[in-house]
Amino acid sequence: MENFSEVLALFLSVDNFLAIAVGVLIGVVVGAIPGLTATMAVALALPFTFSMEPVTAILLLVGIYKGGMYGGSITAILIRTPGSPAAACTLLDGYPMAQQGKAKKALKTALYSSVVADMISNLALIFFASYLAKIALNFGPPEYFWLICFSLTIIVSVSGDSVIKGLIAASLGIIVSTIGLDAVYGTQRLTFDDYNLMDRVSFIPLLIGLFAIPEVIDFYTSKVAPHLRTAVAGASLTWKEFKGLLKTIVRGSVIGVIIGAIPGTGATTAAFISYSEAKRTSPNKANFGKGEIEGVAAAEAGNNGVAGATLIPLLSLGIPGDVITAIILGAFMIHGLTPGPILFQENLTLVYALFCGIMVSSVVLLFVGNAAIRYFSVIADIPKTILLPIVLMFCIYGAYAVNNSTFDIGLMLAFGVLGFVFNRTGIASAPFLIGFILGPMFEDNLRRTMLISKDDLSIFFRGPITWVFVMLTIASLIFAIRRYWVARNEAAV
Amino acid sequence: MEKSEQQFVADSEPLYGRWNPNSALGGIFAVLAACFLFYVVPGYIVIPSDMQHPLLSPRFLPQLAGWMVLALSTLLMIDGLIKPPKREEVNEFRRGVPVMRQALMVAAGIVYVLFFEELGAIGSGVLATALLFLASGLRNPWVYALVIVFPVVVTLLFIYVLYVPLPAGTLWESLSLI
To answer: Which residues form the DUF1468 domain (chain B) (predicted)?
Structure first.
């Protein structure tokens, strides 16, 4: 009871509610603008959180994440341009509905499905994260070493079209993560005697550079595309229709939760599995792909069911499930917190305050989403010619704010060019970021294991937990290679 | 579509030759990885004299990652040579982009990197945003009012709402001394 009052004291502040509302709003707006992504928005918002309390900062980023997940579906439905990869499934039926003059119904279905799925996902987070964290308290460095190895296998799933290119990007990310002074011996590594590099490569310039700058460069190295105007029309979703969709939404949410809790599987997979499951069991099978309302509900429920669940491995084990949670992991570290079982031991009040905020964010999404549908045409009609110079300004100011150094601005632009080259050559940027984050964790746990074992390598297989992670790593690798091989052969046919 | 028809369509899609983007990319990465492993790592990572085990070496992880890049880029090169990728359609919007548009973008980047502290956040913001508006060919003079409004608003937001300090500009300070 005493803890509960502490949680409320920490959570019930105007700043937290404001952070959630602003976060969700930014997420929906950015997600609704074609070409801008939730990942970019979370990366850009990170420097703003420096002066905030940790709970407020994390809630702002989570709000953007959740808003962005829904916002991506708006453009998918209205102009056939998914704001996020996961929303690609929504357009299969959402866009045909818009063409039939049912845009409003499709958008409302997407919103209500997203909110319900988000709620279910949050409940899963609250129930399972602490339980998993309790198990993780038994982990020592060898167990963590294998857990990181298992997490590194998620690189395969975020590699895009080419696994080889993704693995190259991840290796490059690992190399960049080793720049700076060595944590054990204090010797210089790849610093080229530049004092700016001795304290490692700053996370924020790298993040903004990789995910926001390439959009800007791409825009100015292409001709100005005609600006698409949009319209929200037609009747809204009725209560009867919503009740009829509930079964599909709950099923999609559960699929999203299960998939979201597995690192690296992602919202896109969840959306497509949920969609195909709805299609398989629906009496209107033939109408799927032609403007079936159930298709929109299933895709959005699967997509948003992932949002809360991806925070389960992040909070309980300290490993990111996707790119956005990798950024949120960085935010925790910037505020001096390390996600994982220790967080549940030492900062339980903070964890529960976060849970409260995450639940509130779903309700806020409902209101902000409704407003976004009404005022969408205003949001989406901001042309990129005006928008991108402002985005660049935020990038520059944000990168500078980390260390008050113009070196970081240069570093960010350099990573921006790298990200742009990656985009043009078909290399995914996400594996680079995962490699950059997990590389030091891998090295740290390897070294700690070696130091406590006094060079005895059998410690890596010391008990059932290590064996479980060894098996999971091998299984994940086999699964990834198999999937890559099947995709390669399918592409060849 | 029949399987034989699908095969025909797939076969008739244009492929790159042996020297395709994948083999070129693999070759470039392989050369860079070799330089990294045999020049950068030995020259710029010091091994401490009291090191106990090779796995504890500061060189272990960079070398492991470097060898991975070398192996994977060789694989990418071979993959490109054996099985050239399909030729993708060139994006119409990427053809014939005016050089001035790209040059103005680079100039805006240079303003931010080289003159951020001299001109200050607002000064460099105004100049760079004006360059980017020019790059997009915006002609409405009212739009150019935003060139001043945006940097001022964003800077004030950073400084007074979020308490994140930004430079005022050393140039203005020295001018005020004169």
So the answer is: 25-167
Under 8 Å between Cβ of A313 and A263: yes
Confidence of residue A424 (pLDDT cuts 50, 70, 90): confident
In chain B, residues with a C-beta closer than 8 Å to the C-beta of A458 are: none
Query: Are A187 and B45 in contact (CB < 8 Å)?
Result: yes
Together in a domain, B141 and B164: yes
Is residue B1 situated within a structural domain? no
Distance from CA of A91 to the nearest CA of B (A): 22
CA distances from B12 to B5, B7, B22, B79 (A): 10, 8, 20, 20
Q: How many domains does one find in chain B?
A: 2
pLDDT tens-digit map of A383-405: 788 888 988 898 898 888 878 88
Q: Do B105 and B69 share a structural domain?
A: no
Task: Tell me the residue range of the domain where B20 lies.
Answer: 12-82
- B78 and B101 assigned to the same domain: no
What's the Cα-to-Cα distance from A163 to each of A3, B63, B73, rounded to whole Å? Answer: 47, 21, 12
Pull the structure tokens for residue A34.
């074609």
Chain B nearest-CA residue for A222: B94
pLDDT by residue (tens digit) across A107-138? Answer: 899 999 999 999 999 899 888 888 887 777 77
* CB proximity under 8 Å: A 367-386 to B: 385-386
What is the residue extent of each domain of chain A?
A: 2-492
Alpha carbon of B44: minimum distance to chain A alpha carbons (Å): 5
Residue B108 lies inside a defined structural domain of this protein = yes
CB A419 within 8 A of CB A429: yes
Surface of B (28-67) touching A: CB under 8 A: 29, 36, 40, 44-48, 50-53, 55-56, 58, 60-62, 64-66
Closest Cα in chain B, distance from residue A477 (Å): 16
Domain closes at, from B57, B82, B107: B82
Q: Does ipTM top 0.90?
A: no
Q: Do B24 and B70 reside in the same domain of the chain? A: yes
Rg over CA atoms, chain A = 22
Q: Mind listing the pLDDT tens digit for each residue in A261-311?
A: 877 666 777 888 888 888 888 888 788 888 889 999 999 998 888 888 888
**Closest CA in chain B for residue A491:** B10
Contact residues, A window 406-435, toward B, CB-based 8 Å cutoff? 406, 409-410, 413, 425-426, 435
